[in-house]
């Protein structure tokens, strides 16, 4: 059925329920569980920050929400239920295609990955509208122009440009425009400020904040930068080795981190003033194949608070108080 334009405003913020999600990558050394048994509730209308180092599984989790994990990755099991859409992992291919863009918008870490280098930006907007059966293509272009103006850009220039004619910061903002132009209720941003200068970073983050507040959308922010999470997110989810280490309200987690990995991420944040030596880098290396395959706590080799039990047994991911979960034997009550 053809869609009318403009689309109706969101009447209810959309939440996502993830259960027992497992994603593996095929390698020469076997199957690597990049996301392993994740259970996560993403609240509608909030900004949820998902943080971790490279190899933690956060970007794979984001792609799995879209059911768009690239080869050689494969979703083995689980469910990703989006309010008003259904389980993204069991929908037929056409329903999944319609959901991407219409219900779920994605902003790639490298914005050029979402742009066709051989086609002007405006033509790509029209192609997007046609693929989603939008009748009023002129109205769609007006919406694109409005969004680009909101982001401080010369919309006419951008829509007639090729991607190589735009700076990194401009391409990132164009990516945000594509994620929003069909009025998606959920927007996933994968490292939206990577490789941008500080002024462009600040501009992009302010755009994310203002559009989120005005449109009451659900925003998922994938990042390795705890400072970005502190600035934007209502709730933070910490990932390590493909599993969840800790989650809670951002202010509470930053003030009282429970997992040693979360503490390490916070301690590694550079200070603008005061004693610069207070910023301490995490010891050891980010997760690798050996990390994923070990039987005990995935953070064991790098943890300053480890005990004997951590080496032989995986800590459960359980409630550690109101609106708080953590996977750590030093925190959780256990037999």
Produce the secondary structure layout:
Blueprint: E1 16-27, E2 30-42, E3 47-51, H1 58-65, E4 73-82, E5 86-87, H2 93-102, E6 104-107, H3 121-131, H4 137-150, H5 155-159, H6 168-180, E7 186-190, H7 198-215, E8 218-223, H8 226-232, E9 235-240, E10 243-249, H9 250-255, H10 260-267, H11 289-293, H12 308-312, E11 318-319, E12 325-326
Parallel strand pairs: 3-8, 3-9, 6-7, 7-8
Antiparallel strand pairs: 1-2, 1-4, 4-5, 9-10, 10-12, 11-12
Biggest sheet, open or closed, and with what strands and sense?
8 strands, mixed
Instruction: Give the termini separation.
Output: 57 Å
| Uncertain segments | 1-10
Radius of gyration computed on alpha carbons: 21 Å
Count of extended strands: 12
Q: Report helical residue fraction.
A: 25-40%
* Helix/sheet category: alpha/beta
Mean of residue pLDDT?
Answer: 87
Portion of residues in beta strands equals: 15-25%
Strand order of the largest sheet: 6-7-8-3-9-10-12-11
Shape type? globular
Order of helices and strands: EEEHEEHEHHHHEHEHEEHHHHEE
Total helix count?
A: 12
Explain what you see:
- The chain has 335 residues and is of the alpha/beta class.
- 33% of the residues lie in helices and 22% in strands.
- It has twelve helices and twelve strands.
- The N and C termini lie far apart (57 Å).
- Mean pLDDT is 87; it is low at 1-10.
What labels describe this entry?
335 residues, alpha/beta, 8-stranded mixed sheet, 4-stranded antiparallel sheet, 12 strands, globular
Summary of the model, kept short:
With about 325 residues, the chain is α/β, with parallel strands linked by helices. Helix content is about 35%, strand content about 20%. Helix 3 packs across helix 4 and helix 6 (about 170-180) packs parallel to helix 7 (about 200-215).
């Amino acid at each position: 059925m053809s869609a009318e334009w403009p689309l109706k405003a969101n009447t209810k913020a959309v939440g996502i329920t993830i259960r027992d999600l497992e994603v593996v990558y095929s390698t020469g050394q076997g199957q690597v569980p990049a996301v392993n048994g994740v259970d996560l509730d993403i609240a509608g209308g909030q900004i949820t920050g998902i943080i971790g180092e490279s190899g933690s599984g956060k970007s794979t989790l984001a792609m799995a929400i879209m059911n768009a994990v690239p080869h050689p990755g494969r979703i083995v099991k689980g469910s990703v239920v989006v309010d008003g859409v259904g389980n993204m992992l069991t929908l037929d291919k056409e329903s999944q295609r319609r959901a991407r863009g219409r219900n779920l918008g994605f902003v790639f870490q490298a914005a050029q990955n979402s742009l066709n280098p051989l086609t002007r930006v405006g033509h790509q907007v029209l192609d997007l509208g046609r693929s989603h059966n939008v009748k009023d293509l002129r109205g769609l272009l007006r919406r694109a122009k409005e969004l680009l103006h909101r982001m401080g850009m010369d919309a006419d220039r951008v829509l007639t440009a090729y991607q190589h004619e735009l700076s990194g910061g401009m391409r990132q903002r164009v990516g945000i425009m594509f994620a929003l132009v069909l009025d998606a209720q959920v927007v996933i941003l994968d490292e939206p400020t990577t490789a941008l200068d500080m002024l462009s970073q600040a501009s992009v983050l302010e755009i994310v904040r203002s559009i989120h507040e005005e449109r009451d959308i659900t925003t998922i922010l994938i990042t390795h930068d705890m400072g970005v999470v502190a600035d934007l997110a209502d709730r933070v989810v910490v990932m390590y080795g493909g599993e969840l280490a800790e989650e809670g309200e951002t202010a509470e987690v930053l003030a009282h981190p429970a997992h040693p990995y979360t503490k390490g991420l916070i301690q590694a944040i550079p200070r603008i003033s005061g004693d610069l030596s207070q910023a301490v880098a995490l010891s050891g290396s980010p997760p690798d194949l050996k990390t994923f395959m070990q039987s005990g706590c995935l953070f064991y080799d790098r943890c300053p608070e480890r005990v004997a039990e951590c080496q032989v047994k995986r800590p459960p991911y359980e409630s550690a108080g109101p609106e708080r979960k953590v996977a750590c034997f030093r925190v959780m009550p256990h037999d």
